[in-house]
Amino acid sequence: MLVETAKFHDRSQFQLHVVFFLPWKDQLVEPLQQAGVKVLNIPATNNFQIIRKYKEVEQYINLHQIDLVHSHLPWAGFLGRWIHHRTGIPVVYTEHNKQERYHFLTRLFNRFSFNFQSQAIAVSEDVKLSILKNIEVDIPVTTISNGVNTSIYFNNRVVGNALRKSLDINEDAVVLGTLAVFRKQKCLLKWLDVFAALYDCNSNLRGIMVGDGPLMNEILTYRKKLGLDQVVFLPGLQTNSADWYNAMDIFMISSEFEGLPLALLEAMASEKPVVSTKVGGIGEVLQHTESGYLVDFGDWSGLTQSAQALIDNVSLRASMGKYGRERIIASNSLAQMVTSLEHMYNKYGVQKIN
User: Fold this and answer.
1) Which CATH architecture has domain 2-147+333-347?
2) With the CA atoms of 248, 251, 255 and 259 taken in that order, what torsion angle do they form, in degrees rounded to the nearest 10?
3) DSSP H or E run through 268
4) What is the H or E stretch that residue 234 is in?
5) 107-122 pLDDT per residue, tens
6) CATH topology of domain 157-331
7) Residue 170: CB partners within 8 Å, gap ≥ 6?
8) Is the whole-model pTM more than 0.70?
């Protein structure tokens, strides 16, 4: 999202800098630089070391005359608040998750430090309500939903068919897909269980799980246990995510909790009908029976039945996909998101942003 938002910001008003801490998470350095963003790695090996890097961050802020800091994710947020407390520089923080889902130590730090910043942004109303429920807030909290670049994410069957051909997926196959960080909250083993149940009744079904993460080996082992090695493809981390959505017919989310997943918006912008657990802000964007289906978390048979309804009905997939894209263009475009962010930045008299 940082890469894509950089392309939309008004460069006559804003100069963009990105500081990141974990040196092995450098996949976006080159795309950010190509988008005209100045990028700096201040190496840290864990969350607590991030906090200890405050002097180096302050030096960078002073050197480049940064006017405002925008932090993402809790520990970078804690650092930003400490810098705000020390220097008075405006700091805004985007909360991507519900407080209840954080480690108790993260929740504790959030509770006691949250007001040491200028403003907070929630990616969904559900996330905002969680903040207000768990923290005594005396700063503004505004909902700015995630957005996607609808000129990149759109239905392109030519690209999708070429990618399917490279995987030896037949043209008449129905492809069920997902894109996620492979971690516990995504419940990807359950995703595979649902796929296995569907495959028992649909021999032309294929699966694509795009991503990587700490559970990759466990997912690979479980896929083999279910006998799905030849029909569920795991291509790993991919930078050309738009191509992979186009290789899918249906997008499925099995998460236990979410803020507002970017993959949901990207899939809908790509005209893919979505079947998903009803968690976090997903229900604020995905309209049940119009752009897909929502089921309660843990209702795996319901998730299976919803996916089967889409497997059986090509015209329903097309109409839901079209409606979903229209919904994203109307309410969750990246241009709208950047306009809202710039309006917030300008409230602080900002000429350059971090």
Assistant:
1) 3-Layer(aba) Sandwich (3.40)
2) 110
3) helix 262-269
4) strand 232-236
5) 999 999 999 999 999 9
6) Rossmann fold (3.40.50)
7) 204
8) yes
